[in-house]
Each structure stands twice: as C-alpha cells, then as structure tokens.
Specification:
Growth Hormone, Chain: A; about 5% strand; about 450 residues; 3 strands; three-stranded antiparallel β-sheet
Length: about 450
C-alpha cells in the first residue's frame, strides 16, 4: 500500500537528483504527480458498486508492478525525465485506487475495537515502505552505481543502470505481492441487486457521498485540522533528501546514497517502527481524545532536528543518524493519531470507505501543495532558514489540535457493530417524568 506512494514521493526525488535534475524541478513535478491521492474520492464511490474491494486491491498492485517495469526500461531513453513523470503519474492513479480499496478492506473486515488495536501495525507497515524505499532502495542504488563505476566516482550513466535495476525490482515485488494477495486477502462478494450497476448510478452515488461528507458535524474544522497537521511534513518531505545530498558549500551535508540508505534503513527504521507500535497501544489505553494533542506534538516538534542539522552542519555520523532517528520516531508515533482520527471521527458512518478517501485526499492535498513549492522556497531561503520557517508553520497544528471537538464517542470498548453503515446508534432514554430528554450514545449522553 505504501510503496508506490513513497517511491513517487521521495525515492524519485533522490533518483532525479542522481540524474542531475535541478532541485526546484524535482520538488515541483514529483509533487504534482501525487494529485491522484488528493482527488481519489471522485472515483471512490464506483469502487463500492463495481466488483469487490479485493478485486481492486489485487489488480492495482499488478498494474503498478507492470508500470514500474516500464519505468525501468525508460531510464535508458535520452531526456527520459518527461517520460518517467508520465509513467509515474499513471502509477499514482493506480496507487491511489489501491489505497481506497485497501482501506475499505481494513474498515469492513475489522471492528472498531480491532481498528484501534491494530492501527499501530497498519501504520507501521504502511510507513515501513518509507524506510524500505528511502533506506534499502536508495542505498542499493548507490552501491550498484559504485559497482558499475569501479574505482571512480559514480557518473550519471552509472546511476541510470543502478536505478534501472532498482525500479525493475520494485515492479517485480509488486507483481509477487499481487499474486499472493489474490489468495490471502479477505473480501466479501459483491451484493447481487438483480441488475448491473451503471455509470449513472455511480455518479448519483458520488453526489450522495459528497453531500453526506460536507454536511457532517464539524467538517470544516476537521478539514482545516487534517491540512494543518501535516503542513510541516509537506514542506520537509521533498527537501530533506536533497538537503542531505547537497554539498556543504550550498548548505547541505554531502551524504552519499549509501549513507542515506544506512541512516534511514537502520536508525530510522528502528525508531519509526518503535514509534508506530507504541502509538497504537498508547491510544488504545488512553483513548484518542486524550492522546491527540500529545501525538501532534510528537509528530511536529522533531522537525527541529533538520533545522539544527542545517545550521550546524555536523560531520559526526552519530549526530546525523540520531537526528533522523528522532524525527522518524515522532513521525511513526504521531501519524497514527491522524489516521485513526480520520477513520473514527471523519469517516464514521455511511459511506465510510468513500469518506475516508475524502479525508486522506484532503490530507495529501496539503502535502502535495507544500511539496510543490518547497523547492522554490528552500532555494530562496537556504536550507537553514527554510527548516526554521517550517517550525513556525507547525504552530497552527498545535492550536487546532488543542481545541478540536469529537463528533463520535471515543472509547476503546466500541462494539463490533451495526454502526458500520450508520453514523451513531441512538437510543432514547427517559427522565424520571417519563419524557424522552436525551440520547444515549455509546454509553455516554448528549443533549437532544
């Protein structure tokens, strides 16, 4: 689920840097092709009426595998940047469709209690792709390039050969996973309605789910919260690998592909997995409402590590590795809170899969927009002032999180439900005079 997103969003930036593409061009185009993850709600209703969620999970994995294979072949075409961007744009559409269906399987097959219990594992494996890709694949590309170069420093041609192998390996992995998941992933059969669903019905359902989404309680507050929660991450995501690879004269740390792969793949992966897993149990014990502000702080404050690296440009390996580990622990811990909030507060009720696609699309819009302009801002400010400005950009997220209201009961004892296709199961209770006065909601009461 996470591999196509991370490869297009982060690994592609390193690859194009190795191919001598300018920073601003890299940040802009690798952000623009992420658009399908923002607008995926437009076709999410069709996934609920055609075929099954499992069908789309498997078919998009196979399609993405084939497309990465084509991307590997395209690397040897002169001036391949435009061709690769076009191929990656189609991969983005396939990957975004896969996200909708995979999230649908998660929500339809698990109870609310199990969603909370396993959200840390779900987040860990989704974001494990970030570490496998930025750690293992980036490092592998550097090792292969040096192997092809012999005793010389790797040139652009050596990186072309190296990245061809890496992209081919990604495609092969997705093909293998697609075949495996065709047997392993659970999925309910499509309901028989007596007639085949039509495009008109799909458009009608799209209108229905859009209207239902934007009439939810507190929805505009939630939209602002989703955008601001990851605002800082959106700015740094594209720039961090470029900063680490840039020479020291331009304000970077002059790290090689292998060093980036080592830091992300060892220190970063350990810290990230620990953060993701601890967050799931942390939320399950305290409840999301009591935990959300803490999660927001742990998610955003560690970005200061990159500001410190940019200002001081340390040469000690343990300092750089430690900074990456701190940021990745915070990322793993804090991201879980936003995911669960979107599942249980924003997407809860009828059209759960489509509404979660809405929420995650809005989230990715924030990341895409900030990523697209991040290259121009970092070029204008320099890396040190850029990362300092990012810390200022995180302040609104703390304010929004502190005051955020909850629409649905926050309880670790949520029932396995009849609540999957209804907003909240309301039960009338009566005052002592026999007159109905309040609704009981999930064991709590709220004014009628």
């Amino acid at each position: 689920m996470g591999l196509p997103f991370v490869v297009l969003n982060m690994v592609a930036a390193v690859m194009f840097k190795n191919l001598d593409v300018p920073n601003a061009k890299i940040a802009f185009w690798t952000s623009l092709i992420m658009w399908p993850w923002t607008i995926k709600f437009l076709w999410s209703p069709f996934l609920e009426i055609f075929k099954t969620k499992k069908f789309f999970v498997v078919s998009t994995q196979i399609a993405s595998g084939v497309l990465f294979g084509l991307g590997a072949l395209a690397l040897h075409i002169p001036d391949c940047f435009a061709i690769l961007i076009a191929i990656f744009a189609v991969v983005a559409f396939s990957g975004a469709t896969h996200d909708i269906a995979a999230d649908g399987v998660y929500m339809s097959e698990l109870s609310s209690k199990h969603q909370s219990q396993y959200i840390g594992w779900q987040g860990a494996f989704y974001n494990l792709a970030k570490l496998v890709a930025t750690g293992g694949l980036v490092g592998l590309a550097g090792i292969l390039a040096r192997h092809f170069a012999g005793s010389d420093s790797p040139a652009r041609a050596h990186y072309v050969d190296a990245w061809m192998i890496v992209m081919g390996a990604i495609g092969a992995l997705l093909l293998v996973l697609g075949c495996f998941h065709s047997r392993a992933v659970p999925g309910q059969a499509q309901k028989v309605t007596g007639k085949n669903p039509s495009v008109r019905e799909g458009i009608g359902k799209l209108r229905e789910v859009i209207a239902a989404f934007f009439t939810k309680r507190y929805i505009w507050y939630y939209i602002a919260f989703i955008i601001l929660y990851r605002l800082g991450e959106g700015f740094v995501m594209k720039i961090v690998p470029l900063f680490l690879m840039s020479d020291r004269e331009s304000g970077g740390l002059a790290l090689s592909n292998e060093e980036i792969g080592l830091y992300y793949g060892s220190f970063g992966s350990a810290a990230f997995l620990l953060g993701s897993l601890l967050a799931g149990y942390f939320i399950a014990k305290r409840g999301l409402k009591k935990s959300l502000f803490i999660l927001c702080c742990i998610f955003n404050i560690p970005f200061i590590a990159y500001a410190l690296l940019a200002w001081f440009q340390p040469e000690q390996i343990w300092v750089t590795a430690g900074a990456i580990a701190v940021e990745y622990f915070g990322y793993g811990f804090g991201f879980v809170g936003l995911t669960l909030f979107m599942m249980q507060q924003v997407a809860a009720g009828k059209h759960q899969m489509a509404h979660y696609a809405f929420a995650s699309g809005i989230m990715n819009f924030s990341v895409m927009l900030t990523g697209a302009i991040s290259g121009y801002i970092s070029d204008a400010l320099g890396y040190n002032w850029f990362f300092t400005a990012v810390m200022v950009a995180t302040v609104p997220a703390f304010v929004m999180t502190w005051f955020i209201p909850f629409s649905h009961p926050d309880t670790s004892e949520a029932k396995d439900t009849e609540t999957k296709d209804t907003d909240i199961q309301d039960e009338r209770t009566e005052d002592t005079d026999g007159q109905p006065a309040r609704y009981a909601v999930g064991g709590e009461t709220c004014g009628e």
